[in-house]
Amino acid sequence: MAAYYTVSMYPVQFSVDYPDRPLDRKSTLLRVFYVLPIWVVLAFMSGTTYAFGLEKVSLASAQVGGVLFVPIVLMLLFQNKYPRWWFEWNLALMQFTNRVVAYMFLLTDVYPSTDEEQSVHLDIAYPDTEWGLNRVMPLFKWLFAFPHYIALFFLWLAMIVVTILAWFAILFTGRYPRRFFDFNVGVMRWGNRVASYALILVTDTYPPFRLHDDDRP
């Protein structure tokens, strides 16, 4: 995974490969219809209205059908453990969700795979529960992350506007404007870090208020 990420101390890394060829205009034009089948698959896997861990999370997220949250809170609180297979399930579901979201927002015209990484890269370090996680913090992280929820609400609105502009650009030129692309990837990166901190509880390091990677000025 190291080939896809710049050096950074933050334990959640996200990137999307910029398309090295013109994007498919027909796929772009009809994307809202093309994405529906895979979105249904994601909905059944999640068993919830969970959308990228940022907007709506129902109680079903605590069950085995979606992102495991409440069981991890209890396991960390009482046993100071984060079972590896629970981590791998949450990571795989987030990776799949990101592929679907990236496809929906036109960042790629390759249909999302349920298991292959493709051009969307999400890497999360497995937590060291003994030294890296405070067993009481899961009770409060959702509250501490509240400023991020507000910022991300407006960033997601901006992302929708940027995607509409990119939609027209792709239809006319076949290219996703690089600044638009970087902005949308940055919003997704920010969202993944907040979700990893407040929802899947893999780090106690507070997410940075930035769109870009940590090593950039």
Describe it for me?
This protein has helices at 25-29, 31-34, 36-46, 70-79, 84-104, 141-144, 146-173, 178-198; strands spanning 12-16, 120-124. It has 217 residues and is mostly helical. It has one domain. It has a two-stranded antiparallel ribbon.
Write down the overall mean pLDDT: 87
Distance between the termini: 23 Å
Q: What spatial order of strands do you see in the largest sheet?
A: 1-2
- C-alpha Rg, in Å? 17 Å
What oligomeric state best describes the polypeptide chains here?
Answer: single chain
Helix/strand-derived class?
mainly alpha
Count of strand segments: 2
* Approximate helicity band: 40-55%
Question: Spans of 5+ residues with little confidence (pLDDT < 50)?
Answer: 1-7, 48-65
Biggest pleated sheet? 2 strands, antiparallel
Beta percentage is under 5%
Sequence of secondary-structure elements? EHHHHHEHHH
Net shape:
elongated
- Number of spatially distinct domains: 1
Q: With helices defined by DSSP (H or I, 4 residues minimum), what is the helix count?
A: 8
Q: What would a concise description of this structure say?
A:
This protein is mostly helical and 217 residues long. The chain is built from eight helices and two strands; from the N terminus they run βαααααβααα.
Map the helices and strands.
Blueprint: E1 12-16, H1 25-29, H2 31-34, H3 36-46, H4 70-79, H5 84-104, E2 120-124, H6 141-144, H7 146-173, H8 178-198
Antiparallel strand pairs: 1-2
Helix pairs in contact: 3-5, 7-8
